[in-house]
């Protein structure tokens, strides 16, 4: 039943794109599958951080889409780098509350997610990765959908170990990020293997 829901919704979104097109700076590269799509996005203003750059986004639609959000990452290609941004890890993971189950709404679509990410890049003025990027990328073995970021205030913090139960070799870790539209009350915790930041 859930798979049918995904296929129906993704097919409907693809029909809308074929009929109406996409906003400027967003191109559907591969939309043949009902499970995974790729888009190219460009920042259209004069932001020097992203001028003349094109980035590749990969969408993986879970069986329960659109009830659950898609898994969205930047794909690393020779001609498609991962943009430098305080909420985008160098492995292509994106910290955006819209992509979390708490921030997601079924009224969203692949197109609206692309527009949000495009807007996130357009408004950025910091040429930096999230704090703790290298450690996170080196130690992470989870898919983006298996990590629940903790959103609060306007402070960026590296992943930190927290007290609490630990199962197997993993530690409970809070990943603290803010993307400018997150709720200060959102809390989430998932297993993530990492050492204490120095």
From TrEMBL:
- Pfam families, A to Z: UQ_con
Keyword Cytoplasm attached: no
Keyword Hydrolase in the entry? The reply is no
| The entry's keywords | Ubl conjugation pathway
Residue ranges of the UBC core domain? 5-160
Under InterPro entries, the record lists: Ub_conjugating_enzyme, UBC, UBQ-conjugating_enzyme/RWD
* PANTHER family in the record: UBIQUITIN-CONJUGATING ENZYME E2 (PTHR24067)
From the Swiss-Prot or TrEMBL record, give the protein name: Ubiquitin conjugating enzyme
What species was this sequence derived from? Metarhizium acridum (strain CQMa 102)
